[in-house]
Design a protein that fits this description.
The chain has about 290 residues and is of the alpha/beta class. It is built from seven helices and 17 strands. The chain has two domains: about 10-75, Roll (Vcp-like ATPase, Chain A, domain 2), CATH 3.10.330.20; about 75-265, Rossmann fold (3-Layer(aba) Sandwich). The strands form five sheets. The protein has a seven-stranded mixed β-sheet with strand order 11-10-9-12-13-17-14, sandwiched between helices.
Length: about 290
């Protein structure tokens, strides 16, 4: 848990055990958990933890060389970006829309398959809150060990249950509210995912290539998922100099295709395929926005 520490007169102060972020004037930062007697050695000098404990967040701290850092609490974005990784992680630009499309909130139980280094696991654990639960499946113990260490650093490990299993055997859980699938061949596991989700739940997946998307759409239709959506998120930052505001030279473009769908109860008549586009959600006949 990212603790705000001691509160005096409404001002949060850094306290022993807090996970903090130190940011220099060039935008580089360090994450550390404050420990009495500890020290941080950087190219800009040394900072003792004792000199940070008791400071209000937002303060400027000086190294023994007189170089400055600002003291912040890290955001979940910072924790995901700085997570130790043994595999590619989901980017923050994708995580935001995933949390919204899966309707993830406090107290929910969410499944994921394909733990990887735990980038999505961090975001899910943060979103479900202390009363929620994230259950994460993977076939590789080494991957889950990396993810567990990232969660422990963030103080979120108690919200996650790891399970080591080949998901072709299925899942222990049923009637869960949301499921995200991040594996190489997701189209092979749609039946298992459907059995784990409650009717009308939320399914999401990310794949890097269009042929994987096509195969997944076919499998989703076969396994009684409806309202499929496919899109990607592109992120372009801007240089924050008021007199020369313009896009930066590089952007975070294609990282993967996001696919979302909703499971329905299996019936005698297969659900229609239809066409669903994220750009025109209100163009269905009979919607409130239709012209009379």
């Amino acid at each position: 848990m990212c603790d705000f520490g001691i509160i005096i007169a409404g001002m949060p102060l850094a306290a022993p055990g807090d996970l903090v972020q130190l940011l220099d004037h060039e935008g580089r930062y360090f994450l550390l958990r404050l420990t009495p007697g500890g020290r941080l050695e950087t190219h800009r000098g040394i900072l003792t933890h004792d000199s940070l404990i008791g400071l209000p967040y937002g303060s400027k701290a000086l190294t023994h060389l007189g170089k400055s850092f600002y003291l912040f609490t890290p955001s979940i974005h910072d924790l995901v970006v700085e997570a130790k990784r043994q595999s590619q992680i989901l980017f923050p630009k994708d995580l935001g829309i995933i949390l919204m499309k899966l309707n993830v909130g406090p107290g929910m139980t969410v499944l994921e398959a394909g733990t990887g280094s735990g980038g999505l696991t961090l975001a899910l654990a943060h979103a479900v809150g202390p009363t929620g639960r994230v259950i994460s499946y993977d076939v590789r113990q080494d991957m889950q060990n990396v993810a567990r260490r990232n969660l422990e650093l963030a103080g979120l490990a108690d919200r996650v249950t790891f399970k080591l299993r080949d998901i072709k055997e299925g899942f222990d859980e049923t009637e869960v509210e949301a499921f995200f699938l991040d594996v190489l061949n997701p189209y092979d596991y749609c039946a298992q995912v459907h059995r784990a989700l409650r009717g009308g739940g939320h399914f999401g997946c990310l794949v890097p290539t269009v042929n994987q998307v096509s195969d997944l759409l076919i499998a989703l239709q076969r396994e009684w998922f409806v309202l499929p959506e496919v899109f990607e998120v592109l992120l372009r930052n801007y240089k924050t100099i008021p007199a020369r505001l313009r896009p930066v030279d590089r952007m975070v473009a294609h990282t993967g295709f996001l696919i979302f769908a909703r499971p329905v109860i299996r019936g005698a008549e297969h659900p229609p395929t239809g066409e669903q586009t994220a750009e025109t959600p209100n163009e269905n006949p009979g919607s409130d926005s239709a012209e009379e």
